[in-house]
Amino acid sequence: MLGLVGLGLAGCGTRARSQAVAGQAVTGQAPAAGDGLGVLARSRGISFGTAVQGELLGRDPVYAAAVTAEAQLLVPEWEAKWDALQPREGEFDFGPLGIVASFAQAQRKQLRGHALVWHQAMPDWLAPALAEGPARARAVMAAHVEGVLGATQPVIRDWDVVNEVLANPPGSRFTEQTPARGIFRDTPWLRALGPDYIELALRLARERDRTLRLTLNDYGLEGDTPWAEQKRQAMLSLVRALLAARCPLDAVGLQAHLQVDEPFRPEPLAGFIQALRGMGLSVLITELDVREGANLPPGLEARDAVVAAYVQQVVGTALAAGCRTVLTWGLSDRDSWLLRDPDVVRRDGQQHRGHPLDAEFRRKAMWQALARSFAGG
Ligand code: 9MR
User: Fold this and answer.
1) Which of 16, 109, 117, 283 has a 20 to 30 A CA-CA distance from 25?
2) What is the pLDDT of residues 123-145, one digit of tens each?
3) Which of 85, 178, 337 for mutating ligand 1's site (highest number of atoms within 8 Å of CB)?
4) 291 CB under 6 A from ligand 1?
């Protein structure tokens, strides 16, 4: 069995567990015959992947088989967040991430990291430590970047270094309306260090790992609404300021947690992606999934067709504008946060069908829409 040693994750964790699933046979049924989305995408120079839950990879062969069949690129849904990696100050735990990394290595999948600095998934000790003042906040960030990148450097070559730094403009569809400080979300990091915390994280990451792809990841950037446009402009001004300060930055991740009720037009999204690419950055779709609308059409087929049409517009637009990486936030409707998060669950007794595979891991219209988008159709 491939252990954590082979992944460079050993020795860095005080409680690193070696229950990796790498050598375990993937005995579950593949979702269907034929090439998976990852293979289809790769034939067009596109990288397709998904968020995974290590716990399911370890105990659910059908889930593991679907990931193996469909994705070329994996991102841990939880296992690389701060509360997973440094639950107590100075005590790193790479056990859960090691499970995902071992699976990725055994199945020859690439792995990206999510998320080094974020205002959620913070362990209990972190916000009070940041509140002790800027010097302490800088030291805490530096120790986390050092500890994490030191361990993951051999296997993770792309990290969401800073996640969700932009405020939700007034009038946005998000229930989470954190107070803003200018374009920035008000977070413990911002309160400790001001907006400079973004630059600090990027610089620390580049210093620790010269060739790592540094990605800035955020949501609510895709639609054709005044607030989405404001958020796009905020991202462009942030990126311009970072680059003007010669801050290292390689990519912007568009989470693309889509909602079919939100107006969409190709031009604003395409223009935004082209502007980022014009500044030398790559653009990734990092967390694609879809919330269905308030009024569902009758029948699953009709519902799935609405989701698929929306996905094809957004993903088709992004690919045509030069995006070359697409990840969904989970593959199937069975395991998604869309079924668990109280802010996004449906209240009509139905469940969102916002993933390429249904709850029984059968390919549905969204799968076809992605396949067509990759083929340029
Ligand atoms: O899907 C993730 C959920 O299971 C976790 O409880 C939550 C907090 O760690 O994070 C969810 O993933 C989020 C991602 O990390 C950042 N963008 C929004 C995603 C959905 O909330």
Assistant:
1) 16
2) 999 999 999 999 999 999 999 99
3) 337
4) no
Structural domain harbouring 156: 14-375
Q: pLDDT tens, 44-103?
A: 999 999 999 999 999 999 999 999 999 999 999 999 999 999 999 999 999 999 999 999
Name the closest-CA residue to atom 12, ligand 1. 77
Is residue 25 a part of any domain in this protein?
yes
CATH code, 78:
3.20.20.80
Residue type, 320: A
Residue 250, in any domain of the structure: yes
* Distance from residue 6's CA to the centre of ligand 1 (Å): 28
Is the beta carbon of 350 within 6 A of some atom in ligand 1?
A: no
With a 6 Å cutoff on the Cβ, whether 353 touches ligand 1 is: no
The total number of structural domains that make up the chain = 1
In a domain, 4, yes or no: no
CB 125 near ligand 1, within 6 Å: no
The answer to the question of residue 365 being in a domain is: yes
78 CA distance to ligand 1 middle (Å): 7
CA of 246 to the centre of ligand 1 (A): 31
* Ligand 1 neighbourhood includes 218 CB (under 6 angstroms): no
